[in-house]
Amino acid sequence: MRIMTVNYQALEFAGTPPPPGPARHHSVVIVGAGPVGLTLAIDLAAHGVAVVLLDDDFRLSAGSRAICFAKRTLEIWDRLGCGQRMVDKGVSWNVGKVFFHNELVYSFDLLPESGHRRPAFINLQQYYAEGYLYDRAARLPQLDLRWRNKVVGIANGAERVRLSVETPEGSYALSADYVVACDGSRSAVRNLLGLESKGRVFRDRFLIADVKMKAPFPTERWFWFDPPFHPNQSVLLHRQPDDVWRIDFQLGWDADPDLERQPERVIPRVQALLGAETAFELEWVSVYTFACLRMEKFRHGRVLFAGDAAHGVSPFGARGANSGVQDADNLGWKLRYVLEGRAPERLLDTYCEEREYAADENIRHSTRATDFITPKSAVSRTFRDAVLKLAQDAPFARALMNSGRLSTATQLSASSLNTAECDYFAPALAPGAPLADAPVRLIDSDGTHASWLLSHVGGEFTGLYFCDGTAPPEAVIQTLAALRIQPVLAVPDGLRLRAEAASTATWLEDAHGLLAQRCDARAGTFYLIRPDQHVCARWRVFDASAIEAALARATAKAGP
Fold first, then answer.
1. How much of the chain, in percent, has pLDDT values that exceed 70?
2. 457 pLDDT exceeds 60?
3. CB 518 within 8 A of CB 436
4. CA atoms within 13 Å, Cβ hemisphere of 47
C-alpha cells in the first residue's frame, strides 16, 4: 500500500452546511471525530450501518496529545483496515526502564515472547492516528462526516433522540435511533443532558514538552524518580516519529500553568535533561492536572457515552485513548446487532456492564500509579524511595514500584455474555479474554500463505475449530452455517492440507504450533469468539446445542 505524504498536523476541513429540508432521521449519530468516534464510525459503516459523525472543530488534533497506542488497540485498527499505516509510521517499543536519581533500578519487557504480529506499543502522534482513521473513514459511503457541526441541544426520547446542530452557515435539526457521545472530557452532550463525571483530582501538575531533536537515546520508555536534573520530581521520556521526543516534567501543585508554558521556563528544563550543547526545537507544550473521573452510567436511554466523555484517567500508563478505542470496539457490534434485529436492546446494557468495569480497572491502576509517583506525605515518600532503592536487587520491591502500569486489554471474565466452562483448560484465553494472536498459514486452492490468526477473526461471531488434519464432521459446518457463525478451521503445523471446504470455511495451518499452545487446544477443541475478538465460550468437544445456547447468551437473548 502506498503511504501518502500528508501534513496531518496542519490538516483542516471545510465546514458542512446544514442539510436542506425538515429534520432527517438516522440510525446512529456519533458526536466527536477523535480516535474513539472515528473508530466507532468506521466499524459501523464498514458493516453497512449508516452513520452521521459530527464534530465542532475543523482540524485534526492540535499537538501530539495521546501518543502511546497499545497492542490491543493496533489489533482493533487492523480489523478496521488501518492498523498497518499506524505501525509503519509509529515507533515500536516493548522495553521500559526506571531510574532513581541517575541509576537504573528496573528494566521490563512488555512483550517478552515472540509470535505476535504487533509490538506491545507504538508511539505515534495523535494527529497521525486521527489522520489515518480519517483516510479510512473517507472511503466508506455509509459514513457522513460533518465538520464544524456543533451540537447545541438534545432531547433524549423514548423512541428517538433529537439533536439541534449549529454550523457557520446556519442551524438544523436531526434525529437518530441512538446517539453516541465521543466528544471528550468536556463533553457537550453530557453537559446538555445535565450529567457529570465524578472522581478524584490530584493536587499536582505536569508539563508536556514535545521536542524536535536528533538524539542517541534508544527506543524505550524511560522514567526517572528524583533525577539530578529535576530534583524531587519525576520525568518521563518517549520517542515519537519525525525526531520528536515527548518529555513529561512533574511540576508540583503550586506551579503556575500559564507561566510554565512559556519557552523561557520550558527550555532550561529541557536543557538540564539533554545538556546545554544539544540543539532542539519546541514543537508543542502543555500543562495538565492529574484526574481520575467517570460517569456513573455510560448509557442513558438512547444516548451512550464512550472514551473521555465517559471516563478519564491520568496519562501515565497510556490508558485514556486505548481504553476509549476498546469502548468503541465493544459498542460497535452491539449497536449493529440491535439495529439489525439480531439482538434485543438489552445487549446495549452489557456495553455499560463491561466498559464500566474496564473504566474502574483503569482508574484503579491510574490512581495507584499517581499516588506512587506523587507521594502526598513524608511517610509516603519515604516508603516510595525505599522501594526504589530495593528494586535493583529485590524482586518483591519491583512488584511494589509503579511508574504507571501500562495499558493492557481488560479481561471481561465476569461478563454476563460469557458461558461458564465445563471442561478443564489452562487459564489463559478463558471466556472474557481477547483472543491472542498467533502466526498461521492460510490454506486455499493455491497452497499456503503466511498470515495471522486475528486477520481471520472478528466482525461477526467466529467458531474456531481445531482439526486433526482431516475435514471436520459435516455437522460442524452445518451447525455453524445455521447459526451464522464464521467457521475457522485450524490444522496442525506441517500437514500442508489442501482444503476441500475452503469455499465455506477458512482453513489455517498452525504455524509453529503457537495457536494450539496459546488456546490449550487439541483435536476437537472449539472456541466461540465474539465480533470484537473476545472469547465467550470454549469446549473440548463440539456440541451444537451448547454452542446455540452460548450464542444466545452472548447476544443477550438468554440470561445467565
1. 97
2. yes
3. yes
4. 21
| Domains, the chain, with CATH or none | 24-89+119-197+292-366 (3.50.50.60), 199-291 (3.30.9.10), 439-554 (3.40.30.10)
Report d(CA 174, CA 52) in Å as an integer: 10
| CA end-to-end span of the chain | 46
pLDDT in tens, 391-421: 888 888 888 888 877 778 899 999 999 999 9
CA distances to 1, 41, 190, 198 from 309, rounded to whole Å, are 34, 16, 7, 12
* Residue pair 457/529 in contact by the 8 Å Cβ criterion: yes
pLDDT of residue 1: 26
User: DSSP class of residue 451?
Assistant: E
In SS3 terms, 210-277 reads as EEECCCCCCCCEEEEECCCCCCCCEEEEEEECCCEEEEEEECCCCCCHHHHCCHHHHHHHHHHHHCCC
The dihedral sign for the CA sequence 75, 450, 433, 403 = negative
Give the model's pLDDT for residue 369: 83
Question: 103 pLDDT exceeds 80?
Answer: yes
Q: Residue 64 corresponds to which cell in the numbers above?
A: 501530539
Average pLDDT along the chain: 92
In terms of residues, how long is the chain? 560
